[in-house]
Amino acid sequence: MSLIADRPGPGLARPYRFPQVVRRDVAGGRVVAAHLPGQNLAVALLLLDAGAGREPVGREGLGAVLAKALEEGTAQRDATAYALAIEALGTELVTGLDWDSFQVSVQVPVERLGAAVELLAEAVRTPKLDPDDLRRVRDDEATALRMDWANPGPRAEAALRADLFGAQNRWGRPMYGDPDSVAALDPEDLTVFHSEWFLRPGTLVVAGDLDRLDLDALGAAAFAGTGGGPTPVEGPVDVPLRAGRRIILVDRPGSVQSTLRLGHAAPHRAHPDHVPMALAGTVLGGAFTSRLNHLIREVRGYTYGIRGDFASSRRFGRFAVSSGVQTAVTAPALVEAVGEITRTRAGGVTEDELAVARSWRAGQLSVELQSPRAIASALTTLVVHDLPDDYHARRRESLLAADVADVSAAAATHLHPESLTLVVEGDAALIRDELAATGLGEIVDVRP
Amino acid sequence: MPDSGFPWPIETTRLDNGLRVVVSEDRTAPAVAVNLWYDVGSRHEPDGQTGFAHLFEHLMFEGSVNVAKTEHMKLVQGAGGSLNATTNPDRTNYFETVPAEHLELALWLEADRMGGLVPALTQETLDNQRDVVKNERRQRYENVPYGDAWLRLLPLLYPPGHPYHHATIGSMADLNAADLATFQAFHRTYYAPNNAVLTVVGDAAATEVFALADKYFGAIPARESIPAAPDGRHVPRAGAPVAETVTAAVPAPRVFVAHRTHPFGTPGYDVLTVLATVLGSGRGSRLYQRLADGERLAQPDLVGAYGVDLRHAPAPLIVTATARDGVTGERLAAGVAEVVDELATVPVTAAELDRAKALLSTAWWRQMSTVDGRADILGRYATQFGDPAKAAERLPAWLAVTADQIAELAAEALRAEDRVTLTYLPEETA
């Protein structure tokens, strides 16, 4: 006997179905739920139109500080009593922030979801926001950001974002703010932002066994005491591409790796090329088998990993590649990465590569959408981008239908290797001359 | 909430070559998780070969007799699947979750690299993946503040020669010295069907999986005797506290306090799991209440305590805190020690216990909410306890822990003279 040499083909596919979606208007707000029969855990997520995009320029970090301040006591109980009450249900209050939304969620055994949503609403709608507490939380958050910015990455990302989108714009500054912007916030900034954006009803997303949940009661708890309607979202931002490529060198003395963040502006989320762009990004840098990971990791051994993708929010988007490469090979890694992006733009993708990319992206819909947390996140996409209940089914079809011509055209249209900003965060004294010798672009220095 | 921690069917069989097969059918979604636990980890590595088990894990993705180099990832992702592998001191696991119609592909791929890796292994592949792993070491341990804490704690906790003395990532010198023949021998020694558990969870019937397992894995020969790792169950007490201070490019003082406790899966470790949650999980925990809120010595986002779930020796409890501006490493270390000491003297209240158990229940059901989470748990219990059904006992065991047991464990295992303290201090800046 021996191993079987022939690779087996697939069996009969059973179709994937996204869980049944229920949308209901309750108590002035909207509940969007997915039915997960038999699931013991449930997630509720309050989605507010209070993302980083709502923060005024110069006040970056309001949402991040408020996220912490919500747990510093409420109209009904102090911070310790609040922590003990919510954790006794088996959950922490989980907050999240992106450009388009502010999210607060709980995850508990299904029979405790009502009590958990009441506590969630208590923190979001009636936080104490005592000025002394706010100053302390602000200082703690500034310290937390300083800690984070001691790691490689955040400074490089901030440099890339500012160069792509302009530091005069909110979207040209870090999503969570930076240590200085947070340290400069005063308590009134926080209370004003809260009253402006946290007292509107928003949307309650629920993922769980709906036979054991009362959506009306959950909505009533989440929306009690709220007022004001939705605020219009401004249209997409027109971001000009840079005329020529440039290198931004962020000095981090003593680094044993150089952190790479390469990118340029790209279309916003609702752009009609969204699916072929996503697939082009997958072939180039999205999957383990991508061109970039194959070349830079599997052939050259320069890195533990390299990824690239198109990412987008309601108003803007970007193409970006990120990696950490051994200091000694910084220049060749950069040259090869830019070369691969250039080849992909010029030559498009092959049917063989695209077959992997579309099957992977389509298959991920059934493989990764299992837990209540993952389903809640998928519902959030529907709400933020105003998509229909059958979005996931349609997306699967459009992924599987995309052909080489569509995806190659998206690569040709939306990849701009000549306009890339190449941010390199590493030991400048060791890599500067080699970077200059690559001829990839002028070098701009950023010191610590 | 069910009384059992695993309210799904479990069926098992053992092939003639010793491969144990575990199946848990669940038709909720058309996806299936395939998981292999090999009972080999960095605890099996002799001196001079640290990091080999993990580097070997990388080589398992680089082709086998019927699978070309780079094809493994391409076939799984091209089938719509997710895949990965991990190595720790105890074991190495490989897993993929695929749309159910690709179950047979996943089994074929796993069988081919279990039974046919050695002929496909080349010097070029080894050299490439050695570079990748060295970059992994740089990225995760060397280029980030405090990144080498785990590398420093292990030798302080476990003496030379102990299977947990060295970290799984290994040393650069050993990785540089790795030769092809050693890896060929490593595969022949440990990657045998009678040293593995195959678990399949999701949209597949047990009878179908058993037949496919026999079809694809049945021809792989068993290995007669598989060498055991050194016995680490008894660790001599140090008799005096151990402290190490590191001055490095870090943004603030940070303290790690560690103790050897009990092996994962023992009653003592169940108590430790609840104790660690009381001590260090969430804003209601003692560390947060005392050090982040109360005395304000520690940064609120960076306090915590956890057990590392290791099976083959007294597993470590790790407690950590990072200083607020103006607080010295010394002051912080004293504060952490005080809170740890009080676990033996200040009884855990009913509210503290309920809070910890509620958080642990949610964490358990979160792992159970995916087919891949369930497959890994069943593989663990089959490998380490001889019976996947024992997975169901863990959650009830946590829920049965009492405040008295926590105080007893603290008095026995968290004594100051058995304590390891690692303190990072920022370099003086000009």
Automatic annotation (TrEMBL), chain A:
Name listed for the protein in its UniProt record: Predicted Zn-dependent peptidase
Molecular function terms, GO-annotated: metal ion binding
Domain Peptidase M16 N-terminal: 30-166
Residues covered by the Peptidase M16 C-terminal domain: 185-358
Alphabetical list of InterPro entries matching this protein: Metalloenz_LuxS/M16, MPP/UQCRC_Complex, Pept_M16_N, Peptidase_M16_C
Top-level taxon in the UniProt lineage: Bacteria
High-level lineage: Bacteria, Bacillati, Actinomycetota, Actinomycetes, Micromonosporales
TrEMBL record, chain B:
Ranges annotated as spanning the membrane: none
Pfam short name (any one): Peptidase_M16
Protein name, UniProt field: M16 family metallopeptidase
InterPro entries: Metalloenz_LuxS/M16 (IPR011249), MPP/UQCRC_Complex (IPR050361), Pept_M16_N (IPR011765), Peptidase_M16_C (IPR007863)
UniProt record similarity statement: Belongs to the peptidase M16 family.
Domain (Peptidase M16 N-terminal): residue spans on this chain: 21-139
Ranges for domain Peptidase M16 C-terminal: 181-360
Record SUPFAM superfamilies: LuxS/MPP-like metallohydrolase (SSF63411)
Organism: Micromonospora harpali
